[in-house]
Amino acid sequence: MLIRFVTSNFLSFNEEKEFNMLAGSFRTHKHHVYKAGKLNVLKGAALYGANGAGKSNLVKAIDYLQKMVENGGVEKSINSQKFKLDKTKVNEPAEFEIEFYFKGKIYAYGVSVNDNIIEKEWLYISGIDKEDKLVFERKTLESGKPNVKLGKSNTKRSTSNIKLTKPNIRFRFGRPSIRFGQSYIKTKKDELLVELMEDNLLLSNELLLGKTDNLKMIDVENVREWIEDYLMIIYPETKLSILLPGIALSANFTGRTNYLSDWISKFDTGVDELGWESIDFETYFNNDDEKYVNDTIDTIQKEGHVFILTDKENVIAFEEDGRYVVKKIISIHQDENGNKVNFDLSEESDGTQRLLDFIPAVDGILNNGITYVIDEIDQSLHPELLQTLVKKIMDEPNTKGQLIFTTHESNLLDLNIFRQDEIWFAEKDKGGSTNLYSLSEYKPRYDLDIRKGYLKGRFGAIPFMGDLEKLNWSKNDA
User: Fold this and answer.
1) 422: which of 156, 202, 392, 394 is 20 to 30 A away, CA to CA?
2) Phi, psi of 96 (to 5 degrees)
3) What is the CB neighbour count within 10 angstroms for residue 41?
4) pLDDT for 37-76, tens place per residue?
Protein backbone atom coordinates (compact mmCIF):
# COMPACT_ATOMS: atom_id res chain seq x y z
CA MET A 1 0.00 0.00 0.00
CA LEU A 2 1.10 3.55 -0.73
CA ILE A 3 2.72 5.45 2.12
CA ARG A 4 3.95 8.59 0.39
CA PHE A 5 4.84 10.09 -2.97
CA VAL A 6 7.22 13.02 -3.54
CA THR A 7 7.97 14.96 -6.72
CA SER A 8 9.73 18.14 -7.82
CA ASN A 9 10.35 20.08 -11.04
CA PHE A 10 7.55 18.26 -12.84
CA LEU A 11 4.55 20.02 -14.43
CA SER A 12 3.17 22.41 -11.77
CA PHE A 13 5.42 21.13 -8.98
CA ASN A 14 8.44 23.37 -8.51
CA GLU A 15 10.10 22.59 -5.20
CA GLU A 16 9.73 19.17 -3.61
CA LYS A 17 6.11 18.44 -2.61
CA GLU A 18 4.76 15.45 -0.77
CA PHE A 19 1.47 13.60 -0.69
CA ASN A 20 1.20 10.93 1.99
CA MET A 21 -1.21 8.38 3.41
CA LEU A 22 0.13 8.47 6.96
CA ALA A 23 -2.57 8.34 9.62
CA GLY A 24 -2.70 11.01 12.30
CA SER A 25 -3.98 10.71 15.85
CA PHE A 26 -7.66 11.13 14.99
CA ARG A 27 -9.95 8.61 16.67
CA THR A 28 -12.67 8.52 14.02
CA HIS A 29 -13.06 5.74 11.44
CA LYS A 30 -10.50 3.45 13.03
CA HIS A 31 -11.25 0.83 10.38
CA HIS A 32 -9.69 3.23 7.84
CA VAL A 33 -6.24 2.62 9.33
CA TYR A 34 -3.96 -0.22 8.23
CA LYS A 35 -0.80 -1.43 9.90
CA ALA A 36 2.16 -1.17 7.53
CA GLY A 37 4.93 -2.56 9.66
CA LYS A 38 5.36 0.06 12.38
CA LEU A 39 3.42 2.70 10.46
CA ASN A 40 -0.30 3.49 10.42
CA VAL A 41 -1.46 4.00 6.85
CA LEU A 42 -4.83 5.22 5.59
CA LYS A 43 -7.38 3.48 3.42
CA GLY A 44 -8.41 6.48 1.34
CA ALA A 45 -7.76 10.07 0.32
CA ALA A 46 -9.79 12.70 -1.54
CA LEU A 47 -7.87 15.56 -3.18
CA TYR A 48 -9.69 18.86 -3.84
CA GLY A 49 -8.66 22.02 -5.62
CA ALA A 50 -9.63 24.59 -8.22
CA ASN A 51 -9.27 23.88 -11.92
CA GLY A 52 -5.59 24.24 -12.78
CA ALA A 53 -4.46 23.86 -9.18
CA GLY A 54 -2.43 20.75 -9.97
CA LYS A 55 -4.61 17.89 -8.72
CA SER A 56 -4.32 15.97 -11.96
CA ASN A 57 -0.60 16.74 -12.14
CA LEU A 58 -0.08 14.70 -8.99
CA VAL A 59 -1.75 11.75 -10.72
CA LYS A 60 0.39 12.36 -13.82
CA ALA A 61 3.55 12.40 -11.73
CA ILE A 62 2.70 9.03 -10.19
CA ASP A 63 1.80 7.76 -13.64
CA TYR A 64 5.09 9.01 -15.11
CA LEU A 65 7.08 7.05 -12.55
CA GLN A 66 4.98 3.95 -13.14
CA LYS A 67 5.42 4.21 -16.91
CA MET A 68 9.19 4.51 -16.49
CA VAL A 69 9.22 1.31 -14.46
CA GLU A 70 6.97 -0.50 -16.93
CA ASN A 71 9.13 0.61 -19.88
CA GLY A 72 12.40 -0.04 -18.09
CA GLY A 73 13.57 3.56 -18.51
CA VAL A 74 13.00 6.94 -20.15
CA GLU A 75 11.71 6.73 -23.70
CA LYS A 76 11.96 10.45 -24.53
CA SER A 77 13.18 13.67 -22.95
CA ILE A 78 11.36 14.88 -19.85
CA ASN A 79 12.41 18.49 -20.43
CA SER A 80 9.07 19.65 -21.85
CA GLN A 81 7.35 18.48 -18.66
CA LYS A 82 9.56 20.34 -16.22
CA PHE A 83 8.26 23.31 -14.19
CA LYS A 84 8.33 26.22 -16.66
CA LEU A 85 7.69 29.24 -14.43
CA ASP A 86 11.14 29.17 -12.81
CA LYS A 87 14.00 29.64 -15.29
CA THR A 88 16.50 28.19 -12.84
CA LYS A 89 14.79 24.81 -13.19
CA VAL A 90 15.48 24.38 -16.89
CA ASN A 91 18.75 22.51 -16.29
CA GLU A 92 17.63 20.83 -13.07
CA PRO A 93 16.38 17.23 -13.02
CA ALA A 94 12.80 16.20 -12.32
CA GLU A 95 12.58 13.88 -9.33
CA PHE A 96 10.14 11.25 -8.15
CA GLU A 97 10.12 9.07 -5.04
CA ILE A 98 7.54 6.57 -3.91
CA GLU A 99 7.34 4.74 -0.60
CA PHE A 100 5.07 1.77 -0.06
CA TYR A 101 4.48 -1.34 2.05
CA PHE A 102 4.60 -4.69 0.31
CA LYS A 103 5.24 -8.25 1.46
CA GLY A 104 6.11 -7.18 4.97
CA LYS A 105 8.65 -4.48 4.03
CA ILE A 106 8.58 -0.71 3.49
CA TYR A 107 10.36 0.19 0.26
CA ALA A 108 11.44 3.66 -0.89
CA TYR A 109 12.30 3.94 -4.57
CA GLY A 110 13.30 7.13 -6.35
CA VAL A 111 14.52 8.46 -9.68
CA SER A 112 16.09 11.73 -10.82
CA VAL A 113 15.66 12.41 -14.57
CA ASN A 114 17.20 15.11 -16.77
CA ASP A 115 16.49 15.18 -20.48
CA ASN A 116 16.49 11.44 -21.24
CA ILE A 117 19.20 10.62 -18.71
CA ILE A 118 18.71 8.83 -15.40
CA GLU A 119 20.96 10.97 -13.22
CA LYS A 120 20.19 9.13 -9.98
CA GLU A 121 18.23 6.09 -8.93
CA TRP A 122 17.94 4.65 -5.44
CA LEU A 123 16.17 1.91 -3.53
CA TYR A 124 16.03 1.44 0.24
CA ILE A 125 14.20 -0.69 2.73
CA SER A 126 13.00 1.71 5.38
CA GLY A 127 14.18 1.13 8.91
CA ILE A 128 11.57 3.47 10.47
CA ASP A 129 13.26 3.76 13.86
CA LYS A 130 16.69 2.57 12.71
CA GLU A 131 19.01 3.15 9.79
CA ASP A 132 17.58 2.39 6.40
CA LYS A 133 18.92 -0.60 4.52
CA LEU A 134 20.51 0.18 1.17
CA VAL A 135 19.44 -2.03 -1.71
CA PHE A 136 21.14 0.03 -4.43
CA GLU A 137 22.21 3.51 -5.45
CA ARG A 138 23.00 4.45 -9.02
CA LYS A 139 24.40 7.68 -10.39
CA THR A 140 25.56 8.82 -13.80
CA LEU A 141 29.19 9.93 -14.03
CA GLU A 142 30.55 12.49 -16.45
CA SER A 143 33.59 10.41 -17.35
CA GLY A 144 35.98 7.80 -16.08
CA LYS A 145 35.45 4.19 -15.10
CA PRO A 146 33.82 3.87 -11.67
CA ASN A 147 34.69 1.27 -9.08
CA VAL A 148 32.19 -1.18 -7.63
CA LYS A 149 31.29 0.03 -4.14
CA LEU A 150 29.78 -2.06 -1.39
CA GLY A 151 28.53 -1.18 2.04
CA LYS A 152 26.08 1.00 3.85
CA SER A 153 24.79 4.26 2.44
CA ASN A 154 25.56 7.59 4.03
CA THR A 155 22.02 8.64 3.29
CA LYS A 156 19.60 8.53 6.23
CA ARG A 157 15.93 8.53 5.47
CA SER A 158 13.43 8.98 8.28
CA THR A 159 9.73 8.17 8.08
CA SER A 160 9.16 10.20 11.22
CA ASN A 161 9.96 13.28 9.16
CA ILE A 162 7.71 14.43 6.34
CA LYS A 163 10.70 15.19 4.11
CA LEU A 164 12.15 12.31 2.14
CA THR A 165 15.90 12.46 1.64
CA LYS A 166 17.86 11.16 -1.28
CA PRO A 167 21.48 10.38 -2.11
CA ASN A 168 23.38 13.66 -2.24
CA ILE A 169 24.76 13.06 -5.71
CA ARG A 170 24.78 15.36 -8.76
CA PHE A 171 26.16 14.15 -12.08
CA ARG A 172 24.64 14.57 -15.47
CA PHE A 173 26.08 12.60 -18.38
CA GLY A 174 28.10 9.48 -19.07
CA ARG A 175 28.43 6.01 -17.60
CA PRO A 176 26.63 4.69 -14.51
CA SER A 177 28.17 4.00 -11.14
CA ILE A 178 26.29 1.46 -9.04
CA ARG A 179 26.46 0.59 -5.37
CA PHE A 180 24.59 -2.28 -3.72
CA GLY A 181 24.17 -3.02 -0.06
CA GLN A 182 26.62 -5.57 1.30
CA SER A 183 23.96 -8.25 1.75
CA TYR A 184 23.18 -8.18 -1.98
CA ILE A 185 26.73 -8.61 -3.30
CA LYS A 186 28.13 -11.80 -1.79
CA THR A 187 30.32 -13.37 -4.47
CA LYS A 188 32.83 -12.44 -7.16
CA LYS A 189 30.14 -13.30 -9.69
CA ASP A 190 27.89 -10.66 -8.14
CA GLU A 191 30.68 -8.08 -8.33
CA LEU A 192 31.32 -9.00 -11.96
CA LEU A 193 27.64 -8.49 -12.78
CA VAL A 194 27.77 -4.97 -11.33
CA GLU A 195 30.88 -4.21 -13.37
CA LEU A 196 29.14 -5.45 -16.51
CA MET A 197 26.16 -3.23 -15.70
CA GLU A 198 28.46 -0.25 -15.39
CA ASP A 199 30.39 -1.09 -18.54
CA ASN A 200 27.64 -1.77 -21.06
CA LEU A 201 24.52 -3.53 -19.75
CA LEU A 202 22.90 -0.43 -18.23
CA LEU A 203 22.35 2.49 -20.59
CA SER A 204 21.99 6.04 -19.31
CA ASN A 205 18.26 6.13 -20.11
CA GLU A 206 17.56 2.71 -18.53
CA LEU A 207 16.46 1.97 -14.98
CA LEU A 208 18.48 -0.42 -12.89
CA LEU A 209 15.10 -1.52 -11.54
CA GLY A 210 14.31 -2.72 -15.05
CA LYS A 211 17.16 -5.25 -14.93
CA THR A 212 15.33 -7.70 -12.68
CA ASP A 213 16.09 -10.61 -15.01
CA ASN A 214 19.82 -9.94 -14.67
CA LEU A 215 19.91 -9.06 -10.99
CA LYS A 216 17.59 -11.78 -9.67
CA MET A 217 17.18 -9.98 -6.33
CA ILE A 218 13.88 -10.49 -4.52
CA ASP A 219 13.67 -6.93 -3.17
CA VAL A 220 14.21 -5.45 -6.63
CA GLU A 221 11.56 -7.81 -8.01
CA ASN A 222 9.14 -6.86 -5.21
CA VAL A 223 9.44 -3.15 -5.97
CA ARG A 224 8.85 -3.62 -9.66
CA GLU A 225 5.91 -5.96 -8.99
CA TRP A 226 4.14 -3.50 -6.68
CA ILE A 227 4.59 -0.48 -8.95
CA GLU A 228 3.45 -2.40 -12.04
CA ASP A 229 0.70 -4.62 -10.59
CA TYR A 230 -0.54 -3.12 -7.32
CA LEU A 231 -0.70 0.54 -8.35
CA MET A 232 -3.53 1.36 -10.76
CA ILE A 233 -4.05 4.75 -12.41
CA ILE A 234 -7.50 5.62 -13.78
CA TYR A 235 -8.10 8.75 -15.86
CA PRO A 236 -11.48 10.13 -17.00
CA GLU A 237 -10.91 8.56 -20.41
CA THR A 238 -9.99 5.13 -19.00
CA LYS A 239 -12.53 2.66 -20.29
CA LEU A 240 -13.48 -0.98 -19.89
CA SER A 241 -10.09 -2.28 -20.96
CA ILE A 242 -9.37 -2.79 -17.25
CA LEU A 243 -12.66 -4.58 -16.61
CA LEU A 244 -12.44 -7.42 -19.11
CA PRO A 245 -9.05 -8.96 -18.17
CA GLY A 246 -9.79 -9.21 -14.47
CA ILE A 247 -13.03 -11.06 -14.99
CA ALA A 248 -12.05 -13.24 -17.91
CA LEU A 249 -8.84 -14.52 -16.32
CA SER A 250 -10.30 -15.03 -12.87
CA ALA A 251 -10.03 -18.55 -11.50
CA ASN A 252 -13.60 -18.10 -10.26
CA PHE A 253 -14.95 -16.88 -13.60
CA THR A 254 -18.66 -17.34 -12.82
CA GLY A 255 -18.29 -16.12 -9.27
CA ARG A 256 -16.59 -12.89 -10.34
CA THR A 257 -19.32 -12.19 -12.91
CA ASN A 258 -22.01 -12.78 -10.30
CA TYR A 259 -20.14 -10.58 -7.83
CA LEU A 260 -20.02 -7.68 -10.29
CA SER A 261 -23.66 -8.24 -11.21
CA ASP A 262 -24.64 -7.90 -7.56
CA TRP A 263 -22.75 -4.63 -7.34
CA ILE A 264 -24.14 -3.04 -10.49
CA SER A 265 -27.73 -4.02 -9.64
CA LYS A 266 -27.59 -2.01 -6.40
CA PHE A 267 -26.99 1.34 -8.09
CA ASP A 268 -30.33 1.88 -9.83
CA THR A 269 -28.89 2.08 -13.34
CA GLY A 270 -31.43 -0.29 -14.93
CA VAL A 271 -28.77 -3.00 -15.30
CA ASP A 272 -29.79 -6.13 -13.44
CA GLU A 273 -26.74 -8.21 -14.19
CA LEU A 274 -23.70 -8.62 -16.39
CA GLY A 275 -23.26 -11.53 -18.76
CA TRP A 276 -21.20 -12.88 -21.61
CA GLU A 277 -22.07 -13.16 -25.26
CA SER A 278 -20.24 -15.66 -27.44
CA ILE A 279 -19.38 -14.71 -31.01
CA ASP A 280 -18.32 -17.17 -33.70
CA PHE A 281 -14.58 -16.76 -34.27
CA GLU A 282 -14.79 -16.82 -38.08
CA THR A 283 -17.72 -14.41 -38.06
CA TYR A 284 -15.96 -11.91 -35.80
CA PHE A 285 -12.75 -11.89 -37.90
CA ASN A 286 -14.54 -12.23 -41.26
CA ASN A 287 -13.41 -8.88 -42.68
CA ASP A 288 -9.95 -8.82 -41.14
CA ASP A 289 -6.61 -9.35 -42.80
CA GLU A 290 -5.55 -13.01 -42.90
CA LYS A 291 -2.18 -12.22 -41.34
CA TYR A 292 -3.88 -10.45 -38.41
CA VAL A 293 -6.13 -13.47 -37.85
CA ASN A 294 -3.17 -15.86 -37.97
CA ASP A 295 -1.21 -13.64 -35.57
CA THR A 296 -4.19 -13.68 -33.21
CA ILE A 297 -4.33 -17.46 -33.30
CA ASP A 298 -0.57 -17.67 -32.69
CA THR A 299 -0.92 -15.44 -29.65
CA ILE A 300 -3.81 -17.54 -28.30
CA GLN A 301 -1.68 -20.66 -28.67
CA LYS A 302 1.25 -19.01 -26.85
CA GLU A 303 -0.53 -16.92 -24.22
CA GLY A 304 -3.86 -18.73 -23.93
CA HIS A 305 -5.92 -15.65 -24.82
CA VAL A 306 -5.97 -12.33 -26.69
CA PHE A 307 -7.66 -9.12 -25.57
CA ILE A 308 -8.99 -7.00 -28.44
CA LEU A 309 -9.72 -3.48 -27.29
CA THR A 310 -11.41 -0.99 -29.63
CA ASP A 311 -13.35 2.25 -29.29
CA LYS A 312 -16.63 0.36 -29.66
CA GLU A 313 -16.11 -2.82 -27.67
CA ASN A 314 -13.65 -4.98 -25.79
CA VAL A 315 -13.57 -8.71 -26.40
CA ILE A 316 -11.46 -11.69 -25.44
CA ALA A 317 -10.52 -14.47 -27.85
CA PHE A 318 -9.37 -17.84 -26.54
CA GLU A 319 -9.62 -21.58 -27.11
CA GLU A 320 -12.56 -23.40 -25.53
CA ASP A 321 -13.44 -27.06 -26.00
CA GLY A 322 -11.05 -27.42 -28.90
CA ARG A 323 -12.22 -24.36 -30.87
CA TYR A 324 -11.47 -20.67 -30.92
CA VAL A 325 -14.16 -18.39 -29.50
CA VAL A 326 -14.69 -14.69 -28.96
CA LYS A 327 -16.62 -13.37 -25.96
CA LYS A 328 -17.67 -9.93 -24.79
CA ILE A 329 -19.35 -8.57 -21.68
CA ILE A 330 -22.96 -7.47 -22.05
CA SER A 331 -25.44 -5.81 -19.73
CA ILE A 332 -28.80 -7.44 -19.02
CA HIS A 333 -32.00 -5.54 -18.30
CA GLN A 334 -35.51 -6.76 -17.58
CA ASP A 335 -38.56 -5.62 -19.51
CA GLU A 336 -41.93 -4.96 -17.85
CA ASN A 337 -42.76 -8.66 -17.99
CA GLY A 338 -39.55 -9.71 -16.27
CA ASN A 339 -37.92 -11.00 -19.44
CA LYS A 340 -34.16 -10.57 -19.80
CA VAL A 341 -32.97 -8.26 -22.60
CA ASN A 342 -29.31 -8.07 -23.64
CA PHE A 343 -27.56 -4.74 -24.35
CA ASP A 344 -24.07 -3.91 -25.59
CA LEU A 345 -22.18 -1.92 -22.99
CA SER A 346 -21.78 0.85 -25.58
CA GLU A 347 -25.56 1.32 -25.39
CA GLU A 348 -25.43 2.17 -21.69
CA SER A 349 -25.24 5.76 -20.47
CA ASP A 350 -21.88 7.41 -19.84
CA GLY A 351 -22.62 7.24 -16.12
CA THR A 352 -23.32 3.51 -16.17
CA GLN A 353 -20.21 2.84 -18.25
CA ARG A 354 -18.18 4.96 -15.85
CA LEU A 355 -19.59 3.02 -12.90
CA LEU A 356 -18.55 -0.21 -14.60
CA ASP A 357 -15.04 1.20 -14.87
CA PHE A 358 -14.96 1.57 -11.10
CA ILE A 359 -16.36 -1.83 -10.16
CA PRO A 360 -13.02 -3.61 -10.80
CA ALA A 361 -11.45 -0.94 -8.58
CA VAL A 362 -13.93 -1.84 -5.86
CA ASP A 363 -12.97 -5.50 -6.26
CA GLY A 364 -9.26 -4.66 -6.23
CA ILE A 365 -9.55 -2.49 -3.12
CA LEU A 366 -11.76 -4.88 -1.19
CA ASN A 367 -10.06 -8.14 -2.04
CA ASN A 368 -6.68 -7.73 -3.71
CA GLY A 369 -4.76 -5.02 -1.84
CA ILE A 370 -4.47 -2.75 -4.87
CA THR A 371 -3.96 1.01 -4.57
CA TYR A 372 -6.21 2.85 -7.04
CA VAL A 373 -5.41 6.45 -7.99
CA ILE A 374 -8.38 7.92 -9.85
CA ASP A 375 -8.36 11.31 -11.54
CA GLU A 376 -11.71 13.14 -11.60
CA ILE A 377 -13.70 10.37 -9.98
CA ASP A 378 -16.89 12.43 -10.40
CA GLN A 379 -16.66 12.35 -14.21
CA SER A 380 -20.07 11.26 -15.64
CA LEU A 381 -21.35 10.00 -12.28
CA HIS A 382 -24.37 11.42 -10.48
CA PRO A 383 -23.29 12.93 -7.12
CA GLU A 384 -25.54 10.63 -5.08
CA LEU A 385 -24.35 7.58 -7.01
CA LEU A 386 -20.74 8.60 -6.45
CA GLN A 387 -21.31 9.24 -2.76
CA THR A 388 -22.90 5.79 -2.37
CA LEU A 389 -20.00 4.13 -4.17
CA VAL A 390 -17.29 5.88 -2.16
CA LYS A 391 -19.07 5.47 1.18
CA LYS A 392 -19.55 1.76 0.56
CA ILE A 393 -15.82 1.32 -0.05
CA MET A 394 -14.79 3.42 2.96
CA ASP A 395 -17.32 1.75 5.30
CA GLU A 396 -16.25 -1.78 4.42
CA PRO A 397 -14.23 -3.06 7.41
CA ASN A 398 -12.36 -5.81 5.55
CA THR A 399 -10.76 -3.88 2.70
CA LYS A 400 -7.16 -4.60 1.75
CA GLY A 401 -6.37 -1.80 -0.72
CA GLN A 402 -6.58 1.98 -1.02
CA LEU A 403 -8.78 4.50 -2.83
CA ILE A 404 -7.15 7.82 -3.76
CA PHE A 405 -8.90 10.27 -6.05
CA THR A 406 -9.15 13.86 -7.24
CA THR A 407 -12.56 15.52 -7.38
CA HIS A 408 -14.63 18.71 -7.31
CA GLU A 409 -17.61 16.93 -5.75
CA SER A 410 -18.20 18.74 -2.45
CA ASN A 411 -20.79 16.18 -1.28
CA LEU A 412 -17.88 13.89 -0.44
CA LEU A 413 -16.50 16.46 2.01
CA ASP A 414 -18.14 14.63 4.84
CA LEU A 415 -16.48 13.49 8.05
CA ASN A 416 -19.01 10.66 8.17
CA ILE A 417 -17.19 9.30 5.10
CA PHE A 418 -13.57 10.38 5.59
CA ARG A 419 -11.22 11.15 8.43
CA GLN A 420 -9.70 14.63 8.61
CA ASP A 421 -6.32 13.27 7.48
CA GLU A 422 -7.91 11.64 4.41
CA ILE A 423 -8.99 14.97 2.89
CA TRP A 424 -6.34 16.86 0.92
CA PHE A 425 -6.19 20.13 -0.99
CA ALA A 426 -4.13 21.42 -3.92
CA GLU A 427 -3.54 25.13 -4.37
CA LYS A 428 -1.10 27.18 -6.43
CA ASP A 429 1.10 29.84 -4.86
CA LYS A 430 1.93 33.21 -6.43
CA GLY A 431 4.73 31.62 -8.40
CA GLY A 432 2.36 29.13 -10.04
CA SER A 433 3.67 26.13 -8.11
CA THR A 434 1.28 23.56 -6.63
CA ASN A 435 1.18 23.11 -2.87
CA LEU A 436 -0.42 20.07 -1.23
CA TYR A 437 -1.82 20.06 2.29
CA SER A 438 -4.18 18.01 4.41
CA LEU A 439 -7.33 19.10 6.23
CA SER A 440 -5.70 17.73 9.38
CA GLU A 441 -3.41 20.77 9.37
CA TYR A 442 -6.46 22.88 10.29
CA LYS A 443 -7.47 20.54 13.14
CA PRO A 444 -11.21 20.96 12.49
CA ARG A 445 -13.82 19.72 14.95
CA TYR A 446 -15.50 16.44 14.02
CA ASP A 447 -18.94 18.11 13.97
CA LEU A 448 -17.82 20.89 11.61
CA ASP A 449 -19.61 21.16 8.25
CA ILE A 450 -16.51 20.63 6.10
CA ARG A 451 -18.40 21.10 2.84
CA LYS A 452 -19.71 24.53 3.84
CA GLY A 453 -16.32 25.60 5.14
CA TYR A 454 -14.62 24.53 1.91
CA LEU A 455 -17.10 26.34 -0.33
CA LYS A 456 -16.60 29.51 1.73
CA GLY A 457 -12.87 29.27 1.15
CA ARG A 458 -11.96 28.40 4.72
CA PHE A 459 -9.41 25.82 3.58
CA GLY A 460 -8.35 27.47 0.33
CA ALA A 461 -8.12 25.36 -2.84
CA ILE A 462 -11.19 26.93 -4.52
CA PRO A 463 -11.22 29.27 -7.55
CA PHE A 464 -11.29 33.02 -6.92
CA MET A 465 -14.08 34.30 -9.12
CA GLY A 466 -13.58 38.04 -8.64
CA ASP A 467 -16.40 40.55 -8.91
CA LEU A 468 -18.72 39.11 -11.56
CA GLU A 469 -20.80 42.29 -11.62
CA LYS A 470 -17.90 44.09 -13.28
CA LEU A 471 -18.34 41.87 -16.35
CA ASN A 472 -21.39 43.98 -17.29
CA TRP A 473 -23.17 41.01 -18.81
CA SER A 474 -26.47 42.94 -18.93
CA LYS A 475 -25.08 45.32 -21.56
CA ASN A 476 -24.60 42.40 -23.94
CA ASP A 477 -28.14 41.09 -23.59
CA ALA A 478 -30.10 40.93 -26.81
Assistant:
1) 156
2) -140, 135
3) 22
4) 999 999 999 999 888 999 999 999 999 999 999 999 999 9
